[in-house]
UniProtKB/TrEMBL annotation:
Membrane topology recorded in Swiss-Prot or TrEMBL: Multi-pass membrane protein
Taxonomy, superkingdom: Bacteria
Organism of origin: Microbacterium trichothecenolyticum
Protein's UniProt name: Decaprenyl-phosphate N-acetylglucosaminephosphotransferase
Keyword Transmembrane recorded: yes
Listed Pfam families: Glycos_transf_4
Keywords from the named record: Cell membrane, Magnesium, Membrane, Metal-binding, Transferase, Transmembrane, Transmembrane helix
Main location: membrane
Pro residues biased stretches: 383-395
Gene: wecA
Amino acid sequence: MKQYVFTILLTAAVTFVLSWAVWRLSLKYKLYPGIRERDVHKTPTPRLGGIAMFIGVLAAFAVSSQHPYFSIVWAQPQQMYALLGATALIVVIGVLDDLWDLDWMIKLGAQFLAAGVIAWFGQLQIYTLPLGGMTIFSSWASFTLTVFSIVVVMNAVNFIDGLDGLVAGVCLIANAVFFAYSYMVFRDIGSSTYFTLSSLIAAVLIGACIGFLPLNWSPARLFMGDAGALMLGLLMACSAISITGNFDPAMIADNDAFGRSQLLGAFIPILLPVVVVLLPLLDFGLAVVRRMSRGKSPFSPDRKHLHHRMLDMGHTDRDAVLIFYAWTALVSLSVLLMYIGTTLQWPGDYLFGVFYGIVGIAACLVVTLLPSHRRPVSAPAAPSAPGPEPQPDPAPAQEDAR
């Protein structure tokens, strides 16, 4: 565990220092786009935070390659190089889009290319699904399922990037829960090592989010942009695939540590990776259906995402972000508690997780549907006599969120 803590702290420190440097350089050279119609923020803000996060991730992986405890992770260097190469490609495309707004077809093509590199050259694929031991015998079926899974998660995470601290905080919570799960599951099945690719990726992403969040918290001075959001989605998908695609459900089904709930234990390896990104996936699915029903591209931007709807309900920007944090923690911790209940054989096994989920849902619904501080709705300005145009403030104040 000490090695993972060191990895988190190293990634966080490098990401924080570089985020501050990127912010200062972006302001100095005016490397920020104008305000878009769908944006919530009112002051042009740099979007190149993904560069700092990527370098922080690279630093952590570079150190891990020299660490004897992580030698098992680097036993297949081709897989690691494919993962890092695909991540670099996504970051480059994201940076170009953050600066010049690339066509969505170019971005989508790059996403499929990056996912293909990971699945084909890195051989990080979903060979098995923990659904009664079902195995995907066709290599092409496994390849296709893997590529589409990575692309969907990338876009799901990117779609919720609309408020200060939203993506960084949600991914921090999701990866923390997934790290705890991946660490415990290999402990419970009696594995000889707890150092796995899934745990390493989760730890690195925890550190990247911790290091970036201080500059991204409301009022944000720096956004992660598409580069950061797509990178987080890609690595989170790879972390989940590395454990679900190579995890034999029989190891749980035949393990006495799971008491009477072997079947639930076999489902959790695929259930938990989904629920930790449930909100991004929900927002992504709703956006695709909404846009295609109107005859538009599923990637055409609009102002109907879940965080926009939260603002329209009257929530303040910070309240909306905190509510998203609460929902993410609720759904992910509920499944984790169900898993812990099966391994420790608590009274009622997984029912404790179910009870926690029911109580949490009730509490989250109350704070979601009943905003504590409604945003003031500005009345339309009364017509005035023609006069000189007001001059903008030479030093406009930052808005709370975008």
